[in-house]
Amino acid sequence: MYTMEDFKSKKIAVTFQSADEQKKFLTACEKSGMVWIQGQKASGYIPHAGSAITLNGSSIFGKGLGSYTSAERAKAAGQTIVPASAFDFMQAIPFSEIHITSDGKVTHGIYKVDGKVAKRTEARCMDGDVYKFFTGADVAFRKITGEYKRPEKTGKKPTVFHRDRYIAVRRPAKTGEMIEIVDEQGAEFYKNDDILTVLKMGGILAGTVTEWCKQDGIRKHLAVIQEEYVVLVPKR
């Protein structure tokens, strides 16, 4: 793949398959500060079909473009013949779009490339969750990008929890400990007074819980910062 810098620095003569391709190439040359050797702006003069365009050097107007009447003449003059399609800036950039919609129960994600559907996803509420559009949109989007991780069951059976057998301590949690949410800050999947089991610590902020589960044993990959919880320590 060739670059505009290659065109500027090497003895290259560029050929074209169509007038549109030639115009696109000359527009890119104009954006790079080039003009024709006679002074016209790059996109202001279109050579006849079959011409090969090269950079002849500099003129009083700037870096000067020139043309050979044919690729054969350019080659005979010591130029390397390169088709315009071989330049990186001539490659077509696909038009991509993502649509997120909802019917009030299920959130649908559609990923299109150049108007054609490339991928469909959907997000449904888990048992016990209240439907929220932005939560569903986030899940549908992450499914499209491949960043979504399906919640995993830990395999642990729910146990009866006796809150009065624990005391609350303000400190960073450790893996395996239980925490109580006391100052929930805009979370979707937990609220104040929820009891969570810590499965993994991490994140940028110290004391951040990155994986946890409730009594149902379903693993959640959502951060809980230290300001939101207290650690539950068994009474002695």
Tell me about this structure.
- The structure is a single chain.
- The protein is an alpha+beta fold.
- The protein has three domains: 87 residues, no CATH class; 50 residues; 72 residues.
- The protein contains four helices and 14 strands.
- Strands 9-14-10-11-12-13 form a six-stranded antiparallel sheet, with no helix packed on it. Strands 2-4-3 form a three-stranded mixed sheet. Strands 6-7-8 form a three-stranded antiparallel sheet.
- β12 and β13 form a beta hairpin.
- The longest helix is centred in the N-terminal third of the chain and has 13 residues.
- The N and C termini lie far apart (71 Å).
Number of helices: 4
Helix share of residues? 10-25%
What is the strand arrangement across the widest sheet? 9-14-10-11-12-13
Regions with little confidence, pLDDT below 50 for 5+ residues: none
Structural shape: elongated
* Structural class assignment: alpha+beta
Radius of gyration: 31 Å
Give the tally of structural domains.
Answer: 3
- Tell me the fraction of residues in β-strands, as a range: 25-35%
Number of strands: 14
Mean pLDDT: 86
Question: The biggest beta sheet, please?
Answer: 6 strands, antiparallel
What's the helix-strand series? HEHEEEHEEEEHEEEEEE
- Separation of termini? 71 Å
Quick take:
With 236 residues, the protein is of the alpha+beta class.
Topology:
Blueprint: H1 4-9, E1 12-15, H2 19-31, E2 34-36, E3 52-59, E4 62-68, H3 71-76, E5 80-83, E6 96-102, E7 106-113, E8 116-124, H4 133-145, E9 166-169, E10 178-181, E11 195-202, E12 208-213, E13 219-220, E14 229-234
Parallel strand pairs: 1-5, 2-4
Antiparallel strand pairs: 3-4, 6-7, 7-8, 9-14, 10-11, 10-14, 11-12, 12-13
